[in-house]
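ok posting inputs for the 2-(butylsulfanyl)adenosine job
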Amino acid sequence: MSMSAMLNKEEATVRIRQLREIISENNRRYYVENAPVISDYEFDMLMNELSALEKAYPELVTPDSPTRTVGSDLDTSPRGQEARQEFEQFPHKYPMLSLGNTYDISEVEAFAERAARTLGKTFTFCCELKFDGTAICLTYRKGVLAQALTRGDGTIGDDVTANVRHISNIPQTLKGNGYPEEFEIRGEIYMPYKAFDRLNEERLRDEDQPFANPRNAASGSLKLINPKEVQHRGLECTLYHLLGENLPFLTHDEALKAAAGWGLPVSDKRKICRDIAEIEEYISYWDTERKALPFATDGIVIKVNELPYQKELGYTAKFPRWAVAYKFKAEQALTRLKSIDYQVGRTGAVTPVANLDPVLLSGTTVKRASLHNSEQMHLLDVRIGDYVYVEKGGEIIPKITGVDMDRRKPDAVVPVFPDKCPDCGTKLVRDEGEARYFCPNTSGCPTQIKGKLVHFISRKAMNVIAGDATIEQLFNLGYVRRPSDFYSLTKEQLLNLEGWKERSAQRFLDSLEASRKTPFEHVLFALGIRYVGETTARTLARHFKDIRALASADRQTLLEAEDIGEVIADSIIDWFSREENREEIDRLEKAGLKFSVGDENGQKSSSLAGNIIVISGNFSVSRDEIKELITAHGGKNSSSVSGKTTYLLAGEKPGPEKVKKAGALGIPVISEDEFRKLIVSGEESGQENMDNGEGNDSAPVQLTLF
Ligand code: IVH
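and the output
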């Protein structure tokens, strides 16, 4: 890198420190948050710059430099993009390393030459697709899936076995009997494009942040709390690396063939290549053909095929010397911008959406792409008729990332962002610091109303079985104008709708009836308060326990809740300050919806309220059940012992580090029996609380404050 060669030692020291910070931050965003803000290519360029500087000044290398360590997916931060499990962690039997990667074919040639020089004999390469997902390590014992660990920091991984059991193509038991007694097989969990598109559509509809790409979606989904939810995400797995003691295979290819025979998902797209010419042929074939694959790939992995030679070449601290990854640059497509629509969302935000000449991009035909907001349109200097670059990734998918100015025609038209709502004609407003324009007519703009109704019944909100078309019908006939109207619909009214029959009407009414039992946190999400997504609604419900407390909370009180910042706090205050919203809550409450945390949430008592409990070891029931008990009794479970911890709940064989730390901090260590006694005695006192009128566990809440 020419730039680094120009730096003197002092400058290099500063730049190295800066690069390490930037790289660590981006590693965290990629591996932990699953929400990267820079492209893989930009990231790799930062790494290259750091490597070059460390090469020029070896005395500045430290063992914890990102050039020597693998990016960690272990979450050390208090918040993530969505609710995730705190997983038990286990050490890897063999370190889980990364791969050296390059975008430059001459570096692949250099890798092949280096291997040939070191080995000094004839050998072959096994070329494979580089699957763009999240790494997984499966252990099978006696033919049964025993454990699944994420890569973690390469040394210790998160135990995601419960979630992995819900990935349909991972067998719980192997076929036949020719497999070793115990072995590990590593691979990638990925999300096919179809499942990814479906998930993001759902997230956009629910105003949750969409995932930037299938890789982030896969990694986020693997760390969800609820294994059943994982099943719904449609993840798949492909395996590419068999490890174990005394395995009877001479080549990597043979090992994968055997694994496929045991019923494990192994890709059949690999190829044995004898020289660099064959490798290049494989690369160029897949550079085109991968676009038709139903899942994301980001390159090709080239491995020395003979296992004894792999052993001979060995590893650096971070990579195997027997493999390298050639990476493809992010896919872009160039197409013509035909027109721009301005769409109103359920919160009134107006988004410019580009209509494009259809173009193939990462496996799907793209006809529409987001232009984000007026500021972004201005920055891109985009005109109607321009040829624009479209990319999948980023906030809204796909998106326009640039304009081919060389192809701009003189008659290209400068777009005009409307000053009135394209639906109801109300003058648009833009709050200070907001890049987006909003239609302020929240209670009268038909698109916003319909959007709110669709959101209200959506799966993660009230989960009523009905589609957008039903809402359109119900709205157009004037039957439903606000969420509470759903609950006074009659069968006769439904039978008036075109295409409705007795059975569909009954199904819809049954679904509405069932929705009355929806837990408070989902009801709160269903209300559609701006910035209150699924996770925030859960936090608020757990913190405030009932709608009265939330509605009367002032700014300061709201800010005290975990992860609630000023923007969310102001939006909540604004929402509850509107009379129409308060009246609607009254109506929904009369319809029987839950507006407090109660039995429906599994809340059994508040005996552990205020306690932060760390668990370690094995119990008479699963660790998940213990965690559920803690929350059901009002406590909080945390993964690491700190000054805030109230108890360390130690089962059989607790982690020695946790016990030691608890001892050092003077935190009581309790057994499962003692823990159960705490809950029982608490159940009694919980009852007293309710009698005092202070408890809110199951008593119906009267909305007297309005
Ligand atoms: S082999 C010792 N083969 O890419 C490392 N990795 O960027 C052995 N990956 O950490 C890894 N497809 O998670 C291998 N066909 C493939 C792969 C593959 C995707 C991932 C893997 C690795 C990452 C490095």
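notes: Residues 77-85, 682-706 have pLDDT under 50 and may be disordered. Residues 607 and 682 are 4 Å apart (CA to CA).
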